[in-house]
Amino acid sequence: MENPSIKSSKYISKPIAKNFVSNVFSMMFIALCVSGLTAFWFASSGMINNLFSPTGISTLGWVVTLAPLGLVMLMGFGFNKLSSIALLTIFMLYSLLTGMSLSFIFIVYDIGSIISTFFITALTFGVMAVAGYTTKTDLTKMGSFLYMALIGIIIASVINWFMGSSQLDYIICIAGVLIFTGLTAYDVQKIKNIGSQIENGTETYKKLIIMGALTLYLDFINLFLMLLRLLGNRD
User: Fold this and answer.
1) At 52, is the secondary structure helix, strand, or coil?
2) Are the C-beta atoms of residues 226 and 131 closer than 8 Å to each other?
3) Degrees (nearest 5) of the Cα angle 173, 178, 182?
4) pLDDT tens digits, residue range 51-98?
5) Is 21 exposed, middle or buried (0-12, 13-18, 19+ CB in 10 A)?
6) Three-class SS of residue 14?
7) Per residue in 148-190, pLDDT tens?
8) What is the pTM of this model?
9) Residues in Cβ contact with 190 at an 8 Å cutoff, skipping those fewer than 6 apart
10) How many domains does one find in the chain?
11) Is residue 3 part of a domain?
12) Residue ranges of E strands in 66-183
C-alpha cells in the first residue's frame, strides 16, 4: 500500500493524520459488515449449496474461491491507474465475494463459537491497533519479520493440504494468530505514518484510505479464521 508519491509529500498536521486513520477504520468496518451480512445470508438462505456440485466444488464455488485473490492483485497492481471510485468498487466486490466464501463457517461451527470468537478477535485487534497507533517504537523490522513468517505459514498450509496433519494445522493456527496480531500493530503504525505525509483530499489520499482499509480487513479476517480454527466448536 506504499506509494512513491508519499515520500515527496509535505508534512501534514497530526489532526489530519488522525482523520486519515479514522477514515481507514471506517472503510474497514463497512467492508466487514458487507462480508458478515453476506456470509450469514448466504448460509441461512441455502445459497451456499450453489457452491458445491455432485462432483465437488461448482463453477460458482471456484469463482468465489479464486476471484478475491485476483481482485486483491488488481487493486495492488492497478493502484496508480485505477481511480478511487474503481478501487472502492473492487474492494466492495471483494468484500461481497469473501462473505460468500466465509458462509461455510455457519455450517462447520456452531453460532455460539462464531460469535464468541468474533468478539475475541475484535478485542485482540482493537488492543493491538491502539498499541500500533500509540507506540513510539519503530515496528518496521518487526513487520518485515512477520511478513516473512507469513510466507512460511502459507507454504506450510499448502504442504499440509496434502499431508492432512492435524498437529501441523494446530501449529499453523497458533503461528497465524501471533503473526496477524503483530501485523495489526505494524500496519496501523504504517497507516498512521502515511496519514502524516499525504495531502488531505487528493485522489491519492482517497485511494490510500481504501488500500489501508484492505490491509486491516485482511488482518482482521485472517486473525478471526485462525482463532476460529483453534477455539471454535464444530457442529
Assistant:
1) strand
2) no
3) 145
4) 876 667 888 888 888 899 999 999 999 999 999 999 999 999 999 999
5) buried
6) helix
7) 999 999 999 889 888 888 888 889 999 999 999 999 999 999 9
8) 0.88
9) 1, 2, 139, 143
10) 1
11) no
12) none
Does 5 fall in a domain? no
What's the start-to-end Cα distance of the chain, in Å?
39
Report d(CA 11, CA 37) in Å as an integer: 39
Place of cell 497507533: 133
Provide the residue range defining the domain that includes 178.
10-231
What's at 97, amino acid-wise?
L
Residue type, 92: M
Name residue, grid cell 503461528. Answer: 175
Residue type, 86: A
- 162 occurs within a structural domain: yes
Query: 48 CB contacts (<8 Å, ≥6 apart)?
Result: 42, 103, 104, 106, 107
